[in-house]
Design goal:
There is one protein chain. The protein has 180 residues and is of the alpha/beta class. The protein contains 6 helices and 10 strands, in the order αββαβααββαββαβββ. The protein has a single domain, classed as DHBP synthase (Alpha-Beta Complex), CATH 3.90.870.10. A 6-stranded mixed sheet has the order 6-3-5-4-9-10, covered by helices on one side. Strands 7-2-1-8 form a 4-stranded mixed sheet, covered by helices on one side. The radius of gyration is 15 Å and the shape is globular.
């Protein structure tokens, strides 16, 4: 896959996910993360989420996976992002001010293939400029983003979606709070 080479070399991609089109890069490369922030024109203090392929990969990037989180992942059949309190093995510009990180395991064939071949997490932020609406289809993505990325996935260009993931946060005390 050409996109794997691009990701490994610090490049950016535009790709479909289990929710909406995403703007992404290798989440372990600080300069690639900085480039995503620049493309979006967003404040670096705003949080980004990452995608991981499975529980094994998840364990590499969070200190703890509470039992109630595992149960939640098994119960919810729609896309689910969980904000974990203590991230690890990620660049500082990837983390929230409190060292938390939002992570989703996508149920999407293309994303899973990317993640397994790259064998690292991928940034997944909505493919829109800061303060613009999230795109519901490939055609609604701002041309500036399409021109700025290093690779555009050539699949699902006609698919329309407005499905956002559910978001839960694990507090430092281990409590699970629904955010969206």
């Amino acid at each position: 896959m050409k996109e794997i080479e691009i990701l490994n070399n610090g490049g950016t991609i535009l790709y479909p996910t289990d929710t909406i089109w995403g703007l992404g890069c290798d989440a372990t490369q600080p300069l690639a993360i900085k480039r995503i922030i620049e493309i979006k024109g967003r404040a670096s203090s705003k949080n980004l989420i990452i995608l991981v392929s499975d529980f094994e990969m998840l364990k590499n990037y969070v200190e703890e996976i509470p039992l109630q989180t595992i149960k939640l992942m098994q119960e919810i059949q729609t896309p689910l992002t969980i904000i974990y309190p203590k991230a690890k093995n990620l660049p500082i510009n990837m983390l929230s001010q409190d060292d938390s990180i939002g992570i989703r395991i996508p149920n999407h064939q293309y994303c899973q293939r990317l993640l397994k071949e790259l064998n690292k997490p991928i940034i997944s932020t909505s493919a829109n400029l800061s303060n613009e609406a999230s795109p519901t289809c490939f055609q609604s993505i701002n041309d500036k983003i399409k021109q700025e990325v290093d690779f555009i996935a050539n699949i699902e260009h006609n698919k329309i979606t407005n499905q956002a993931s559910s978001i839960y946060k694990i507090t430092n005390e281990g409590e699970l709070i629904k955010i969206r």
